[in-house]
């Protein structure tokens, strides 16, 4: 049984905690409000953006730390405060030895927009604040006192994440030329626990992995398929114009597959099917 500190208890964090609990690990969850945490998580009420609230960590010991925080707002200040300063505050507050830190990052650190294949060795020159701050956080983790593994997730979807569904219902289509990459939140959680288990089994784990499913597709393909599932005429979808954050890349998960991870949802159809059913069930009149 490993003692795990989970920093950030949103949807992804709670999914990680549930899987860790099933493997009989001890989970301590750090978040501002711990009143709604399930009983198998020992809650710590703290805020990584406020160093004084983290002082209690100096009296605790953990074997692993999983950082799955969210900025709350989509702006540079919030990203810097949470991902960059928050992580630095957390590392400064940890007193005891830790085997490994797992940091949730994003494929937004990649700048490629020409439809090329991208993997862990590809250049990272983000041109938007979101990718810049995530990459800065990765650097802090890599240069910190704890051995670290960064997991760069692509576009996360799953129950409660209905952005694309709502766009299709509003007849917002997608480009037929730009590639996008997706991953179900269940696979995100399972990947983090899989990597932690590798460490527990004394197997080698690298410093960075990409978490994405096995089927990069165009946004038009996903939205046309969702339209059929939702009973929307796909001919009524209006393709969005390429915006300032134009991105198109085929992100590879070969490194994770080679390590032995098996996806529960290897493509968008297997993953979005249950999500659409969940949405339809919630919105029956």
TrEMBL record:
What Pfam families does the entry give?
Epimerase (PF01370)
Ranges where the NAD-dependent epimerase/dehydratase domain occurs: 7-211
Q: Could you tell me which Gene3D superfamilies the record lists for this protein?
A: NAD(P)-binding Rossmann-like Domain
TM region(s), chain numbering: none
> This chain belongs to which protein, by name?
NAD-dependent epimerase/dehydratase domain-containing protein
Organism from which the protein derives = Sinobacterium norvegicum
């Amino acid at each position: 049984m490993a003692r795990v500190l989970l920093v950030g208890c949103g949807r992804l964090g709670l999914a990680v905690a549930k899987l860790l609990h099933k493997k009989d690990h001890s989970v301590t969850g750090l978040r501002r409000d711990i009143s709604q945490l399930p009983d198998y998580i020992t809650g710590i009420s703290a805020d990584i953006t406020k160093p004084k609230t983290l002082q209690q960590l100096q009296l605790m010991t953990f074997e692993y730390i999983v950082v799955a925080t969210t900025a709350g707002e989509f702006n540079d200040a919030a990203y810097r405060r949470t991902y960059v300063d928050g992580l630095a505050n957390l590392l400064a507050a940890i007193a005891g030895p830790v085997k490994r830190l797992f940091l949730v990052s994003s494929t937004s650190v990649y700048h490629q927009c020409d439809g090329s294949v991208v993997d862990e060795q590809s250049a990272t020159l983000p041109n938007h604040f979101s990718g810049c701050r995530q990459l800065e956080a990765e650097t802090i983790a890599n240069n910190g006192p704890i051995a670290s593994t960064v997991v760069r997730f692509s576009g996360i979807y799953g129950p409660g994440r209905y952005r694309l569904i709502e766009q299709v219902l509003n007849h917002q289509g997608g480009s037929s030329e730009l590639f996008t990459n997706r991953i179900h939140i269940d696979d995100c959680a399972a990947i983090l626990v899989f990597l932690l288990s590798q460490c527990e089994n004394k197997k080698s784990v690298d410093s960075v992995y990409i978490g994405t499913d096995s089927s990069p597709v165009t946004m038009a393909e996903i939205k046309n398929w969702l339209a059929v599932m939702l009973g929307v005429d796909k001919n009524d979808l209006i393709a969005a114009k390429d915006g300032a954050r134009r991105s198109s890349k085929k992100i590879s998960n070969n490194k994770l597959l080679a390590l032995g991870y098996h996806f529960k949802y290897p493509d968008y159809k297997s993953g979005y099917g249950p999500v659409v059913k969940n949405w339809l069930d919630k919105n029956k009149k």
